[in-house]
Design a protein that fits this description.
Blueprint (H helix, E strand, L loop, with lengths): L29 E2 L14 E12 L2 E10 L4 E8 L6 E2 L6 E2 L11 E9 L2 E9 L3 E8 L5 E3 L8 E6 L8 E7 L10 E6 L6 E7 L10 E4 L4 E3 L2 E12 L2 E11 L7 E4 L10 H4 L7 E9 L4 E8 L3 E8 H10 L5 H4 L5
Parallel strand pairs: 6-10
Antiparallel strand pairs: 1-22, 2-3, 3-4, 4-5, 7-8, 8-9, 9-10, 11-12, 12-13, 13-14, 15-17, 16-17, 17-18, 18-19, 20-21, 21-22
Length: 341
């Protein structure tokens, strides 16, 4: 076992459950026995919550949740929890305003991520900007939410910020696409000095020949800083005769130049196997959006959307998952190059 450490804060009250007897001992992730932690019809007017992001806040936990309204239009709702498992949700969706305090609401918003950088919390989501694109907002108190200018042109999805500046710049992962559900499917990196102007775009990694990520890939939870590099949980997609299958993958990016992939796991870390992952509004989906970690113990709790209907929780330890990624490394020369052409 390696001695990989998490570089970051302690989260001693984070949700945690040791591996149960029914969990596969050779897999680095194991599911919470009481999954799903969020079921259907969780709040009035919302049919399903899934693909959502949470993090520690004060002495408890807070989250931004994809709430699929009963009319089928998704928006982002705020949730609160004492233990990171049992959640209560605000009935009204988050009210976004511009820098002058005027309403600046997206037509729809889904698959949010939540990242803290210094004393500010940033929310990223997918929205309509004359096509699928990325929206972003900031808050310091989870009471007022200031929406920023859209960082990229359409079409783009799956944005997630690194939790600190790198070489003085904000750094964001995204997945450029087009008007369809697929084509394209590679993760790119962009930098900004001020969260308004974005450039220095780099290719990070693309889909592979492995079955579970042969169609496309996309960012997941915010990268976790470790002594081995940035630990990235992402999603990989395969197309079968009965539809798409979304699995969770893992990679390790260079700490100072994260467009360079040091290791990339050829095996999935989690794939749909349980009823709440296989059966739902969109079957066969495990979609990671957040990870809470405790630097002191090396524990990691991963929140993932299940079948576009539920929220599931899985656990790992940083040394276990890093060792597994390195053992089954399949990084190619295209992965390990800086991604500048």
């Amino acid at each position: 076992m390696s001695e990989t450490k998490i570089i970051g804060s302690a989260a001693p009250n984070m949700p945690w459950q040791e591996r149960s007897e029914k969990s596969s001992e050779w897999m680095p992730l194991w599911r919470y026995n009481e999954n799903p932690i969020i079921g259907r019809n969780p709040v009035e007017g919302v049919a399903r919550i899934f693909n959502s992001a949470v993090m520690p806040y004060e002495d408890a936990f807070i989250g931004v949740f994809r709430g699929e309204q009963v009319n089928g239009i998704p928006h982002i709702y705020l949730g609160h929890s004492r233990d990171g498992i049992s959640w209560s949700f605000e009935k009204e969706r988050i009210n976004f305003t511009d820098e002058k305090g005027r309403s600046f609401m997206p037509l729809y918003a889904y698959d949010p991520r939540l990242v803290r950088i210094e004393d500010t919390y940033y929310i990223m989501w997918c929205q309509d900007f004359y096509g699928a694109s990325i929206g972003i907002a900031k808050t310091t108190d989870f009471k007022t939410f200031t929406r920023l200018e859209n960082p990229f042109l359409p079409f783009n999805r799956n944005a997630v910020l690194f939790p600190r500046k790198i070489n003085g710049n904000f750094v964001m992962l995204s997945r450029p696409s087009d008007g369809g559900h697929t084509p394209f499917g590679d993760i790119f990196l962009s930098e900004s000095p001020d969260m308004m102007y974005w450039g220095k775009h780099r290719h990070v990694m693309g889909k592979s020949s492995e079955w579970w990520e042969s169609l496309k890939i996309g960012g997941g939870a915010a990268p976790i800083e470790t002594t081995e590099g940035w630990l990235l949980f992402y999603h990989g997609v395969n197309r079968t005769c009965s539809g798409y299958v979304y699995s969770i993958g893992g990679a390790i990016l260079d700490i100072d130049n994260p467009s360079v992939v040091k290791y990339r796991c050829g095996n999935f870390l989690l794939t749909p196997e349980e009823w709440y992952e296989e059966r739902g509004f969109v079957p066969n989906v495990t979609f990671p959006c957040a990870a809470i970690c405790d630097a002191a113990s090396g524990r990691i709790a991963i929140y993932y959307g299940a079948a576009d209907s539920y929220v599931g929780l899985a656990f790992t330890r940083v040394d276990e998952v890093v060792d597994y990624i390195k053992e089954y490394n399949t990084a190619t020369s295209e992965d390990t190059e800086p991604g500048r052409r």
